[in-house]
Amino acid sequence: MLTFKSVTQQDGSKLRSYYKDCTYGLCEYSVGTKLMWRTVLHPEWAESDGCLIVKNHIDGRYVFDYPVAGPEGDEESALQTIESYCIENGFPLVISVVPESKAPVLLSRYPYSKVSNIRTWRDYIYNAEDLQNFVGRKYGGQRNHIKKFQRSYPNAIFRPLTESDLPAVEVFWKSFEIEFGKTDYRAERELAFAKKMLRLIKKPWFLAGGIFDGERLVALSLAERCGSTLIIHIEKALYSYEGVYPTLVQGFAQHFGSGIKCINREDDAADRGLRISKLQYEPVKLAPKYFFEPQNELLCHVKEIPLLETKRLSLSAITEEDIPAYNELVLDTERNRWWGYDDVSGLGKPVENSSFYDVAKKDFRHCSAVNFAVRLDGRMIGEAVLYRFNYRGDAELGCRISKEYSGSGYGAEAFSAVADWALYRVHLNRVVAKCYKENEASYKMLSSCMKKCGEDETFFYFEKYV
User: Fold this and answer.
1) What is the pLDDT of residues 182-229, one digit of tens each?
2) Lower CB count within 10 Å: N or C terminus of the chain?
3) Rounded Cα distance, 437 and 446, in Å
4) How far apart are CA 217 and CA 165, in angstroms?
């Protein structure tokens, strides 16, 4: 089970151990973005399978970054861990800001998935050499601006910023606020975040530099190297110094760009002015960030619980008339010791007459399970439950029969009917099941209609394919 911890400055070194060699090239896979936007993204992190797993809480729901593998990391296992975590905690699986290189992995992994690629999320990616040299006709405007700046301020220089420059940074912010013309909430919030981030220039994860006109700091930038990409988190300059922005961009790229292939100047946050500015620097691409919402087969194929019929039985949705029989089945503690789930504790509140019926209805409404009443001559004698949809075409099936009807093969008959329905009507790839090793009756029943595929200290495991 994953144990998450909120991202703090103290976690920077641990996160950097993954991000420093990360090849995704997106700004979200960096310490700077996690710290700068933590009050918006609410990022939490955990380690599993040699990978960094980040869970964010945005607009009332949890979304995961694509796992970042360390030297011995196993992405496949990390994805399985994320899927299991979502199933166990009962919230939808969402994987966000998926880099272009990993989108095919998820497209083939999830048979059904809603995928989006929002324009305003895309990062602006530039060839490092282009920003270092501004060669060619397309950069004529930038070169002219830089020449004008150099003529107007011949003593201005670019140099790295260190902790000793923090007083100059504070003076810069006062001047910047006077010239800052944006009054909307998002711009003001970003500026507040930028101020806090610049106080962290002493951290080894960040690269900071600025342009000084004499003793006065007139432009600054903060970045982070992730793999062969330089991710620019902050770029600010005094607008009154005409030509200072392209001068800053070039100076920063030249000073910190050794061994860098690409420079990521992040997204435009749907700001028209930023979009125009970033496009003028001729990005080689706007890097997509895919948003995956895997769907399970219930959502796609099952609008209502169907009627299934076998030689002796019928299976259908549990109704209010079934509540007495259903409660008797669920509250039979002696037989349910083999069920593997404590229905009473799972409620989390005192048992009422309709408690278990309400849970079954809610689970189907949320597309997390299908509870069939197993009926003999119309009377409910058991339950078959298809649940734990793993988004990859698998689901687990369980079946229990009332004590007075056991030993007649009704369990195997009901189980086979639901398994066939799941494989051929719900279009699952595989149905799985398990039984306690001490439960000989369940072992015989599962062996009669499924293939044994493994065991551990507690369970025998079975599967059935199309």
Assistant:
1) 778 888 899 999 999 999 999 999 999 999 999 999 999 999 999 999
2) N
3) 12
4) 9
Sequence-distant (≥ 6) Cβ neighbours of residue 308 within 8 angstroms: 314, 315, 316, 372, 417, 418, 421
120 Cβ contact partners less than 8 Å away, ≥ 6 residues apart: 267, 268, 269, 270
Whose tokens are 């989006």? That residue is 116
Question: If phi over 0 gives left and psi between -120 and 50 gives alpha, with beta otherwise, what is residue 118?
Answer: beta
Q: Which CATH architecture has domain 123-266?
A: 3-Layer(aba) Sandwich (3.40)
Q: Would you tell me how many other CB atoms lie within 10 Å of the CB of residue 250?
A: 22
The CATH code belonging to domain 5-121 is 3.40.630.30
Q: How far apart are CA 332 and CA 115, in angstroms?
A: 44
Alpha carbons within 13 A on the beta-carbon side of 138 = 9
| pTM, full prediction | 0.89
Q: What is the dihedral of CA 91, 394, 367, 418, to 10 degrees?
A: -150
Residue 349, CA atoms < 13 Å, CB-side half-sphere: 7
Pairing of the two strands 229-237 and 51-58: unpaired
Classify 297-465 by CATH class.
Answer: alpha beta
